[in-house]
Amino acid sequence: MPQYIAFLRAINVGGRNIKMDKLRGHFEDMGFENVESFIASGNIIFETERVDRRALEQPIEAHLEEALGYEVATFVRTVEEVGEIAGYTPFVKAMLERDGSNLYVGFVVEPPDNKAVERLHGHATEIDSFHVNGREVYWLCNTSSSQSDFSGAKLERALGRPATMRNIRTVRRLAKKYGDRNV
């Protein structure tokens, strides 16, 4: 049975807290099998025979909004896709290995258009660099993200659509645990 990872926006941030067992229960209520959570930031692993990604994302969003009382943008990837994302090299090695550098992955539903990518690159500074690859946006922050002017909210405004971000370490841990064991 195909295995997926749902990256949920607005889980356990901004005073909106939910226990992972309750969140897993919501996924089980939707008929998904072998549901697991990975850290408490809205990463849900599940299995289903359904294969249309959008046909997974939209009902999850609707169910969670009804259950939790607020919108939860949902970005579903196969475990194979998460392995590819984890292994992708969006910047030259020297940039990635700078002391204090942090790489983040922004997940969006559809690839951003050229104008959105231009707006995103308008946020580039000596601290912040960006790269888009399909439905993922890579943000290289050459310092702590708290010292950068860039944020998830600015990412969403630049792209003109919802997004959620994860540290590349989280994505790699997910890939190693559920997909490509060589990441």
Describe the structure.
- The chain has 183 residues and is of the alpha+beta class.
- The chain has 2 domains: 3-81, 2-Layer Sandwich (Alpha-Beta Plaits); 83-178, Alpha-Beta Plaits, CATH 3.30.70.
- The chain contains 7 helices and 8 strands, in the order βαββαβααβαββαβα.
- The protein has helices at 20-29, 53-68, 79-87, 93-96, 114-121, 152-159, 168-178, and strands at residues 3-8, 33-37, 43-47, 74-78, 102-107, 128-133, 136-141, 164-167.
- Strands 2-3-1-4 form a 4-stranded antiparallel β-sheet. A 4-stranded antiparallel β-sheet has the order 6-7-5-8.
- A hairpin with a 2-residue loop joins β6 (128-133) and β7 (136-141).
- α3 crosses α7 (168-178).
- The longest helix is centred in the first third of the chain and has 16 residues, at 53-68.
- The two termini are 22 Å apart.
- The mean pLDDT is 93.
Provide a concise account of the structure shown.
This protein is α+β, with helices and mostly antiparallel strands and 183 residues long.
List the helices and strands and how they pair.
Elements: E1 3-8, H1 20-29, E2 33-37, E3 43-47, H2 53-68, E4 74-78, H3 79-87, H4 93-96, E5 102-107, H5 114-121, E6 128-133, E7 136-141, H6 152-159, E8 164-167, H7 168-178
Helix pairs in contact: 3-7, 5-6
